[in-house]
Structures are given as structure tokens and as C-alpha cells.
Amino acid sequence: MHTLVLVALVGLAAQLVDGSLGMAYGVTSTTLLLVVGTTPAAASATVHLAEIGTTLASGAAHWRLGNVDWPVVRRIALPGAVGAFAGATVLSRVSTEAAAPVMAGILLALGCYVLVRFTFRSLPRPRSGAPVRRRLLVPLGLVGGFLDATGGGGWGPVGTPALLASGRTEPRKVIGSIDTSEFIVAVAASAGFLVGLGSSGINPLWAGGLLIGGVAAAPVAAWIVRRVPARVLGSAVGGFIVLTNAHTLLGAVWADPDTAAAAGVYAGVVLAWAAALAWSVRAYLAERALPPAAAPTSAPRVEAAERDLPRSAAG
């Protein structure tokens, strides 16, 4: 019962992050499940089983709000499903000792992306009317689906920035399309884990706990969105993911992760995290203090886009 409560709290925390940033549900929940003590394959399998429910609900919400570009969904969902199924079966066949540093490395890279993305980068202006090419969506789906299954998350962090960078789809439809297609990816990943692990390798009670925690967190996430800038929250969450998985990775590759050298690495990560967070807060306050006419041309567009983006799960 104690573990189930912890898992529900993991789901709540992950949904707070995802509902506020539009990504990182899988990355955050998998990281926290590994901290609780689950194996890499079981953590990813549990997260994807829970995501079948969360992505279905949020995809339906995006559809009702008109935030879905269906041609994009059709072209990216199938290769995403293929990549996710392959990634799940690969992870299921890797030993726990070998999988732990691999997953920690993937999560560390995704955490670095979230940290950098929300600390320094801004959203590009979309070029309306230009369709997204299949030659971008097919490999993007394959890579995103594979990383999502093997890393326990990554569909949103991989797919969302790539589509935003293409500049061919407005931000709200990027989030809605990635989020809607993630339902197919979650189903395929869960099927892959069922093939690789069997039903005994997936804990449905934990998946239910994640789902319950996510549902409970949804209204709180909406409150956070109105009061905490996405830029600041993204830097905070990205730094947490980097620090947690750096500890796991060092523990796997260092004979004694408590040495002075390892402590120096941890201190460096914490200092970089604090600097990024301070930069985000300072930049946000500076933008907020400027009158609309004097603000940089990109800042109002970024803040407005972040306020208008749907706040459902995207990865």
C-alpha cells in the first residue's frame, strides 16, 4: 500500500510537470519510478500502460478544441508505433544491470534538452499553409517512438521541438498532434512490453496509481500554469531530471559513487542547475518589466504562445 501511494504521488508530480510544460510526463514519471526502486523495463512498461489512458483523454480534449492536425498524426503515428514496439522489445531483453545506465543516459540527455529548451530557446514563428513533409515525419516517428520506449519517455521532447523547428505548424497544433499520436505509441509500446516481459512484468496497480495521480493533478497543473512561468518551471524540472539520472549513471560507471570526484560532479550539476534557474527567473522578470512596445519581438510571441498552448500531456 505504501508503494502504491508513492506511485500515485509520482503520477501526480509527473502530470504537474506535463500539464504545465506540455511535455515530460514519461521522462519525469520514469525517473521517479526508478528512484522508488523499479527496474528500467518495468518502469517504462508501467508508464506506457498508464499513458494509454492519459493520452486518450488528452487527445480527445485536443480534438474537441481543434488542436489536431490529422495529416501529421496519420504520418507520424504509425512509424512511432513501429519504433516504440521495437524499443520495448529491445529493452525487455536487456538485463537490469545493463539497462539501468542506458536508460539513465537517455533520461539524462532528455533532461538536458528540457533544461536548455526552457532556459534559452524560444518558439519559432510558424509558416502557415506549408504542410509537414513525410520525409521528416517518418524518421522522426521511428526515432521518437524508439527513444520513448527505451527511455521511458521522449515522444514529446523529441517530436515537439522538431515540429516546432520546422515552422510549418502553429504551436497549439504541434502539441495537440504529438499528444494525440502518442496514444498509438503508448499502445504499441505496451504491446511490445507484453511480448517481451509477459503480463507478469507489468504492474497494473502501479499503472492505475499513475493514472489516478495524473487525473488528480490536472486541475492543480492548470493553476500552476497561470502562476508559474513555463520557462522557470521547465528549468527547474530539467535540472531535477539531470541531477537524478546523473547520480544513477555515476553509480553504474563509478566503483564508488561517493568519492570526492563524484561529489564534484554533483556539485557542478547543482551549480549549473541553479545558474540556469536564476537565468530563467531574471529573463522572465526582465521581459515582464518591459512595456509591450519596448519588449523584444520574440518575447511577447513566446509568452503568448506558451499561455495559449494546450496544457495536456505530450510525452
From TrEMBL:
Membrane topology: Multi-pass membrane protein
Stretches with biased composition (Basic and acidic residues): 303-315
Subcellular location per the Swiss-Prot or TrEMBL entry: Cell membrane; Membrane
Keyword Cell membrane recorded: yes
Any single Pfam family the record assigns to this protein: TauE
Keyword Heme included in the entry's annotation: no
Alphabetical UniProt keywords: Cell membrane, Membrane, Transmembrane, Transmembrane helix
Ranges where the record places region Disordered: 296-315
Transmembrane segments: 98-116, 136-156, 205-225, 232-254, 260-281
GO-annotated cellular components: plasma membrane
PANTHER family in UniProt: MEMBRANE TRANSPORTER PROTEIN MJ0441-RELATED (PTHR43701), MEMBRANE TRANSPORTER PROTEIN YTNM-RELATED (PTHR43701:SF12)
Family of this protein: Belongs to the 4-toluene sulfonate uptake permease (TSUP) (TC 2.A.102) family.
Name this protein carries in UniProt: Probable membrane transporter protein
